[in-house]
Each structure stands twice: as structure tokens, then as C-alpha cells.
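input
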Amino acid sequence: MNILVFFGPAGSGKGTQAQYLKDEFNYSHLSTGDLLRAEVKSGSDLGIQVKNIIESGDLVSDDVILQIIKDKILTIIEENNTPGIVFDGFPRTIDQARAFDQLLNSIDLTLNHAVYFDLALETSIQRISGRQIDSRTNMVYHKESNPAPIDVQPYLITREDDNPEKVKHRYQVYQNETQPLIKHYSDQLLTIDCMKSIDDIHQLFDELVHSLQISV
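output
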């Protein structure tokens, strides 16, 4: 089973390419946010614990997140209907990366590739701050690169955390916390230049997928 980690700043396209692996090659696409929400919804003992932590305003600890991830990986292995798993935005810190290495080793898995989606601050701000969302369907548009049809425009909203100052803050947090992963994953690292157009990024990624037989 292929194990992939995608990391990069907001707007780099890592989520889009992870979804491509899911849609085209039946990969399991995992993000910690989705996993936490699913655990809470399940009503399990762990889910209740996570719900209480979130409602108290605290951050869910790495130990809890890693337990949820381990349980999900074991379920996927048991179901045996996917060629691999792509982790979208996890791990975020060097401590999480080291713990994740240990987790994979404990269940006889290894990380195949870590894909770094490289993007400059100015482009991250431009891509994220220009996003608009159809409040009825959650379809994402962009003021410049993908404007919404006229009949959709009255329903468009902009997320509060997509304003330029908050995007800049998220980028700086990313640089401080996630950039060290480049060194940590140097042996498995693949880099994609995300300063290119969205179509060019996808073409580069698609070529990468086929050259490394990631789809197998």
C-alpha cells in the first residue's frame, strides 16, 4: 500500500491533487479535520473526548490525532479496496512527523513519498483572498481565475479566514511549523512548483503520478 504525505501552504493545490488521486485511482484521502469531525459524529468514546476538547476551546493533542489516524489506517487495510492513502496537510510539525514515522513502523508500513507543493506568499494571498463560495452548493469560485456565473453571484460568500491578513498569518505559521518537514523527508521528497497555473500544476502532478507508478 502506498503512503503519501502532501504538504504546502494554503492555495498551493495539495487538496485538489489529493482529491484527484481519490477520484481517479481510488486512493483514500485523509485530512485531520475530516477525521476529527467523523470521530465526533460517530459518538465513540474517543469522539466524545474530541468533542469535549473542541468545545472547551483547546487543541486536540497529537496523541489523540495519531490514535484516530492509526484506527483509520487499520480500517482501510482491513477493507483492502484502495491502492494507497494520501495524507493532506498532515503531519504539520516535526514532532508530528516523527510520531507518524513511529506509527507507520508499528503497523509495518513505510512512507513512500512526501510531496511538497511550493508556493510563494504573494501567490498564496492572491489565490485564497480571491476565493468565493456559493452558499447553497459550496462550489468554490475565484474573482479572477474562475469567476462565478451571474446567476450565482448573489449567493456568494467569502470565508472570514480568507482575508489577506489572515492568509498571511497562516502562511507565516506554516513557514515556522511545516518548513522543517522538507529536511525531515529529504529521502522521500518530491517538489512541485505551484507558482505555475492551476492547469500546469495538475499536468506536473499527473506526470509525477505516472512516472512513479503512484496510481498502482
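quick obs: The beta strands are 2-7, 28-30, 84-88, 113-118, 131-134, 140-142, 156-157, 189-193.
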